[in-house]
Design brief:
Layout lengths: L2 H19 L7 E6 L6 H9 L21 E4 L4 E6 L2 H7 L2 H8 L3 E7 L6 H11 L2 E7 L9 H15 L5 E2 L1 E3 L12 E3 L1 H14 L3 H7 L3 H23 L14 H16 L7 H15 L3 H7 L6 H25 L9 H17 L2
Parallel strand pairs: 1-3, 1-4, 4-5, 5-6
Antiparallel strand pairs: 2-3, 7-8
The chain binds guanosine-5'-diphosphate and magnesium ion.
Magnesium ion binds next to helix 2.
Length: 361
Amino acid sequence: MTDQQSFKDYEKGFVKMYEEKSPKFDSSVNIALIGTVNTGKSSLLNAILGCERDKPLAPVGVKSGVTTKVTAYRLDDRVLIIDCPGLDDVRKENSAETKNFLKNIDIGIFVVIGSTDSSQKANYDDLKKSVKKTIVVLNKIDELDDHEKEALDEVVAQWKSALGTEKIFPACAKGYDPTMRKGKPMDLRGIDEIRDEILNFLQAEGKETPFIRILRNKEIKAHKIIHSYASAAAVTSAALGTVPVLGPVTGDSLILIAITAKMGQSLSRDVFNRNTEVSHWKHVAAGMAQFFAGALTIKALASLIPIYGSAVNAATSVVTVETIGWAAYHLLDEGSDLDKLSKEDIGKALDWGKNLKSSSK
Ligand SMILES: Nc1nc2c(ncn2[C@@H]2O[C@H](COP(=O)(O)OP(=O)(O)O)[C@@H](O)[C@H]2O)c(=O)[nH]1
Ligand SMILES: [Mg+2]
């Protein structure tokens, strides 16, 4: 097989893999957030979406204890999140939007606090039978900070048996209440785990794109996009036993182009609300290729490492694609004119991407 042929195979494989993983660009996502008043549902929603403290999407704390009504957050034309004590409240609403919602709930996030309360079981069971996926969150775990470490495990175990569930996500979403003292830092815990659980489920359903689009924090959004491209590249590499940067690094035969263009366009559209052309990314990818020429040595090294070649290829692909992704993010964040980038600009962006990657785990 010629290099040219393996490039073509790789490119085809990658595109197929990516499209298989997120094929339904026009799908919608419905999420129900269920829990009694004051459990921190609005706070959790803000935290999961990555809202800044002074820019919450869902109002927190204000008039807590009085509102028992269904609150709907229509985040865009594809994502609807409904927040209420129980699904029965949604049923009573009886509007066209809630009726449609009830028929198509993807994820139910069930929020509890404190020690077990047997009256919650009925609400949880009701939710469970109406949705494809439930996530149980034990919020306000900071209230146990002054207790022995085992106290939290104990409460988690009690909730597990009270609700009859295997998994509970402990969390803290403190800091969005406008009446909280400004000097007090925010306290967010367990939020990434909940967001990842949502994304993993949606990804399996081919529906993560609409959810990623509504995330408020640019870095979180970019991280999720880059991660999904990197995993597509890894799967392709493992299947074909190659990495995207090997072979003669000429501008037009480069597999890198397919990845850089798709990922670059997605980052610009979904993170920066900016439309970019494939041709711009071709220019960027060709510039990057020169810096990746050294990756050939990675392959040489890989043959000396006593593990399966495909595992090394997959890992190399993840690192490469993540570096490219963060470099592209940096270029977009700086507002760069992609057509006018010099080799130095691209080199600097790649360095930035590499450093960022190594500093974040
Ligand atoms: N201590 C603590 N307070 C929290 C936490 N999450 C939310 N709160 C507070 O609980 C109150 C109610 O929160 P809110 O999000 O409005 O609850 P909701 O009624 O379920 O939407 C507010 O004062 C929040 O700041 C948490 O994890 N720990
Ligand atoms: Mg609320």
